[in-house]
Amino acid sequence: MRLGVLDVGSNTVHLLAVDAHRGARPLPAHSHKTELRLAELLDADGAIGPEGVERLVATIADALQAAEDKGCEAVLPFATSAVREASNADRVLARVKEETDVDLQVLTGDEEARLTFLAARRWFGWSAGKLLVLDIGGGSLEIAYGMDEEPDAVVSLPLGAGRLTAGWLPGDPPDAQDVRALRRHVRAQIGRNVGEFTRLGEPDHVVATSKTFRQLARIAGAARSAEGLYVQRDLSRKSLEEWVPKLASMTAARRAELPGVSEGRAHQLLAGALVAEAAMDLLGVEELEICPWALREGVILRRLDQLPVTEE
């Protein structure tokens, strides 16, 4: 069957159409993506403003049309931290339902972490042993650890690259004192939660998902996306530590000129790098591998696991 996954994230609204079958890897068939930056559209009261709601509704309607055009039998719609934490989330969800007939499922941070972990486990398999999975989104950081498909420990922290950029780094390039203050904030937040994972012992394999980690790996020398999903891409803490001060000294326009960095995400890259560096340092990670699958694939895999045989 062809499934559509509609991901209303903190940075983008992304429809991914896949050809999916039980017991097989979902095969991407079409991608429809709109950059919305919801995490940066919250007002002083934490609400998504009228313009943001209008844009969200229109973007979801466009994505549904794309799903219909590409022959999706079903669409699995979900939203993450930007909608989840908006003070007017109920009104936004009601408006989306009224205008588009879409019931957005708002995932909790723990659900995000668990579904992303499931995707990583299926990608790397049982031979990867104990997995530690890191994911930096626009609004939150998820960490998950475990031996099985269901992680033993998860945490979701409000340390997304878009959220932190909007709240802590107004300058371009940012002021050194602002960067220092954000670094302290990030490390304090992660430091409070490190024990949840270190008590479980050293992982056998550390992996990371998300656009932020992919871009950081690319500027540190990893293979281009054009070389395919199955090329191994790694990111070392040493390389990241070398890049953080460089990114801090650059304007967003200069960062956008780096290999693999998109213009729309360039302004967030420093905040994402500070989170990645802190997580790797505090969790004792010297090197990690980039996982091509993440939350969207986790949603698809969970859906396939729940299908009756007659729906295959």
Give a structural overview.
With 312 residues, the chain is an alpha/beta fold. The chain is built from twelve helices and eleven strands. Strands 8-7-6-9-11-10 form a six-stranded mixed sheet, sandwiched between helices. It has a five-stranded mixed sheet with strand order 3-2-1-4-5, with helices on both faces. A hairpin with a 6-residue loop joins strand 7 and strand 8. The longest helix has 20 residues, at 50-69.
Q: How would you state the average pLDDT, rounded?
A: 94
The largest pleated sheet is described as: 6 strands, mixed
| Number of helices, counting only DSSP H or I runs of 4 residues or more | 12
* Helix/strand order: EEEHEHHEHEEEHHHEHEHHHEH
Note the quaternary state here: single chain
Strand order of the largest sheet: 8-7-6-9-11-10
**Cα end-to-end separation:** 7 Å
Please state roughly what percent of the residues sit in beta strands, choosing from under 5%, 5-15%, 15-25%, 25-35%, 35-45% or over 45%.
15-25%
**Residues in helices, as a percent range:** 40-55%
**Structure summary, number of beta strands:** 11
Derived structural class: alpha/beta
Radius of gyration: 19 Å
The coarse overall form would be globular
Low-confidence stretches: none
